[in-house]
Amino acid sequence: MSAREPDPLGRGPALAFPPGRCLPCRPGWPAEVTIIERMSRAGTSLDRLRPRRFDLTLVATVALMALFTVLLAADVDLRLVLFDRTLDIVVTSWSVLFAGGLALLTMPRFRDSGRLTLLLQVAAFLLSAAYGAFCVAAVLFRFDGTLGMTLGHPEQLPLYLNAVTRLLTAILFVLAGIAAINRLQTGTWRLRTVLLAPIAIVAIVGVVTYLARDLLPPLIDEVGMTELLRDTAGGGRLPGITPLAVSMVVTTVLLLIAGSLLFRTVYVTRGPVSDGFLAVALVITAFAELQAAFYPSVFTNLVTASDLMRVIAYGVILLGIGAEQRSDLRALREAYAALDRLRVTEAERAALEERARLAREIHDGLAQHLWFAKLKFERLSGSVPAEERPLAGEVGQALDSAIVEARQALVTMRTSLDTDLPLSEMLTRTVEDFGQRSGIQVTFSAGPALPAALPPRQQIEVLRVVQEALTNVRKHADATVVRVRADTHGRDLSVTVADNGKGFDPTAPIDQGLGVQGMEERARLMGGSLRITSEPQGGTMVEVTVPMLLPDWLASTAPLAAASGVTAMESSDAPARSGRTSDPLDDTTTSARVQAALSQGADPQAPRPVP
Fold it and tell me: Rounded mean pLDDT of the chain?
């Protein structure tokens, strides 16, 4: 997708990324996803109606307008006909302001997207605004009588001007609907030509009609003109409307209905929200034309229901543009949020690549040299004098410890690269590797609501805390059994590492190592907390609790305890073994909490398995 290719929803150029640089893809997503496209779909869903509900709204509008029109046609007492020069100027001025404002609001959207439908809509709004401004100017500068626009001297010129303007406006909306369905772009179209051509056509028709006003067939015959002069109350039906006038009105109404159906089709196919409002407004405008057929409101000093209905239609279109702008703003905010997440993801990816490079360096360099030194030392240890053998043994132990630490570093870095694995699988690998290296009996169990995965950064930090806790067990606890359990409590994830080692007195002043401080810092960075519970000869329990920052595409799964393959028991057995229905970590005493965590498996006093 090119940088200038318009968004399928008509919101301007789509913000796209080349393959391999898009947002993290998940199963079911296309290989390349534009941010604006995805965010627009999410944003517009809050402003739009579903197709069925929108169709019901459109049908309800048609039914209401039809009922209103029938009532006015059947009962002349209900007809709204006002003879007021000031009110006529006010209503016409409001129409000009609405039409001109709609043109000004639509033009930036056209310049941003280049959609032909928006350009044609601007042309229609400008044409209506120009005709209304001409009528207001005729009254203000008092040349309306010369053009036969007053009720004192009514002529055919204003009737022709009004009919041609409405017909041409309807044609523009139909063309705009066709362009919207086909998603046409302006291409080589000249902007000024499209905007000024309809106004020029109406002006030419006006000049020709004025020069040949005595030769043109009338739209309202002499009987109708006489009735306009006589019926000052506007209560009777206006006779004398010729078939030519009726045919022009019917054509205009049919074109407006066709335009409404076209924009309805665009809307239900996930088009812009404003197109749905425009479809409703065109229906109202169509019935306004029918109202004008019963009693034309062309002449000055005359205000009818059709004038008010056109103002309402403009208001509906204005509401649609407002809804469209709110939707665009929401989509833009979400796109910025997605870009920020992309920035974080790219930073994390760079960190993971650097960890992979360091892991290769450690494996190919430091680890190999340590193994080489170990082999050479074993060959030399036989020739060491007896009095120096204790020192040689210490050197051998130091080399063994260095090799173990190097392997632990490799495991830690490599595990960070497996962010596509489920959380339970990552914890399972960590526990299995610890058991193989340390010779300590260790088991892992998962709660039934454990999510399949967390965001990569959070998942790595949780794993780091667990690895550091297990390292402390190996170095300091002198334990034979370790239990690791991951479970959820509401929107929080809790991971517990409990051992049956020698423990320590938490009230005694001790110097916390860098390992404990690192675990606390990682927990705080994730917005969580770390709790360490211990007592002499009572074991130690490390519990990290963090809020789960799950995006929509990370769905929770069914119970994963059985699927993990390393659990010592089903997670549902924990309440039964502890004798409580709540989390066993909530017991009151330190030894009870540690023993409750250890009780989910083998006997804590069981001998160490052979590595």
Answer: 76
